Amino acid sequence: LVIFHFSCTTLQCRQSMDSSRSEVFDSDKQPSVKSRYRMNTYLDVPEDKTGKFYLLFTLKERISELIASLKVFEAHGINIVHIESRPSRSHAGCYEFLIECNAMDKQVKSVFKTLQDMAENVTIQTFGPIHECNGAMISYLQVINTNNSNIIIDVVPWFPKKIKDLDLFADRVLTYGSELDADHPGFKDEVYRKRRQLFADIAHNYRHGQPIPRIEYTKEETETWGVIYKELKKLYPTHACREFNHIFPLLEQNCGYSEKSIPQLQDVSDFLKECTGFTVRPVAGLLSSRDFLAGLAFRVFHTTQYIRHSSAPKYTPEPDVCHELLGHVPLFADPNFAQFSQEIGLSSLGAPDEVIQKLATLYWFTVEFGLCEQEGKRKAYGAGLLSSFGELQYCLTDEPEVHPFNPEITATTEYPITSYQPKYFLAQSFENAKEQLIKWASAISRPFNIRYDPYTQRIQILDNTEILNHVVHDVRNDLQLVESTLMKLST
């Protein structure tokens, strides 16, 4: 058995601003579409450009097989830079070898073909390279199962398998630090740009498991926060959903939420961890839709620490700490909403690009601009609404269209990004929305299913009976606990 992972050159590199993380506030001045988002723009990457490749393959515990495999690389002129080995956990009597090499795409394809011809039964998994293009990371995974003459080919994008893997792309933002567009309110303010660079450096250097650095916000920054906080808090009791209004006072009690202070991300993360297992980690700016949604799969929310420019407190061309902490954070402390958000993230792992676009649209119309029905009235639960006192009032009027939430329809609905939404989708409840999403996501084309293990914070790929037996064992234990508890309650 040979399991061979290699990287194939990706022909397109996304240079798009992530529409699922926009925020529009009241302002006479609206940015150009170009400055807001660069959607669906691609750059060509030369197909035969020499690059670094990482190959992982599994061989029987015989030195002759390793020698034969290495000769394949030599025969195709591929320079091996580094090699490691370890006993295979998934294949008894085998060793896994990790090889780092420099090669061209056509050379790797030749090695692929040769190794395929050498083996009688081959399972080959090819993990795509990490190509950097304007700060974006593009990775692909191709799974090919070959059993004699039967060939099945599925193309699956790379995705993180453990929570620490988020470190691999958390700094691959589509906007960064002091590099602001010319129409940004803080473009000509050197002091503001230096502050943005400071926040970007903190996020860039952060790694999973580290405490989030505490920020000493300036008086000007705190006053900007206070203007927004004061206006929004007046609207929450009548416009926000029940869950939001239950949690917001708890954030004031436990995380330092107030008109006169900007909460620290570490305090917020600790609070969310105790409530639902969600955490936050600093990010320098907008991530791609795929990367941002992948974080949600691990119950991690990527959060900016910078604040909008003081000259325009009602408007920001990008998500800032006001949008994150006032709009998003409160509902991540609600178990049903947290589960709904994670389901969106899990659905994105290994999904094709066209599905990612649909998931980003679902995210937009739910987590960002979602409405729900409570006690016969419409209430807001989307972060884009809960952090915008203008649109928070507008969304509950008779002016916009309101339709029942249906993932099949919602996922393909177009939306504006520089104005209030003309259309919203109304969920019966977070639980109902989650059930609809899970049913919709079950049709996503993947050659396997996945499961999140909260104990190890890893993604389990359910692609063989041995792993499924472990899942069944866990389910049985849970059912036994439920049965035992019911018996005690009935006595």
UniProtKB/TrEMBL annotation:
Q: Which cofactor does it need?
A: Fe(2+)
Binding-site residues, Fe cation: 323, 328, 368
Tell me any Pfam family this protein matches.
Answer: Biopterin_H
Its protein name is phenylalanine 4-monooxygenase
Q: Which Gene3D superfamilies match?
A: Aromatic amino acid hydroxylase
Q: What PROSITE patterns does the annotation carry?
A: ACT, BH4_AAA_HYDROXYL_1, BH4_AAA_HYDROXYL_2
One GO biological-process annotation of the entry reads: biogenic amine metabolic process
Under the heading PANTHER family, the entry gives:
AROMATIC AMINO ACID HYDROXYLASE, PHENYLALANINE-4-HYDROXYLASE
